[in-house]
Known about the structure:
Elements: H1 3-11, H2 21-46, H3 53-64, H4 73-93, H5 97-114
Amino acid sequence: MNHTARKFLDLIGLKRQTVSHRERLLTSLGGFCGILGVYFVSDTILGAALIVASMGASAVLLFAVPHSALAHPWNVFADHLISAVVGVVCASLIADTLIASAVNVGAAIAAIHYL
């Protein structure tokens, strides 16, 4: 790749991959097992397979970038707990689902930042 192309890719934030194929495989397998575990537990305990979209984002953090501050187990657990509490409060107080969802996201982010 020529210097100009490399400079352009660096400018837009695309860096060369430094992750080995082994690590890519292991993180993919970890994400698969994690989501499969969430599915199994929710189906077994609740009788319904419930997977929240944030579980996928958490799997990416936990398995693909495990050294990130956001991927620490306590942060992941606390963030889900805080978001769930804020979600229940928003759903209880705001009748419009669209507005409740937007308020929930904004308020959960604020709560997580301050807590």
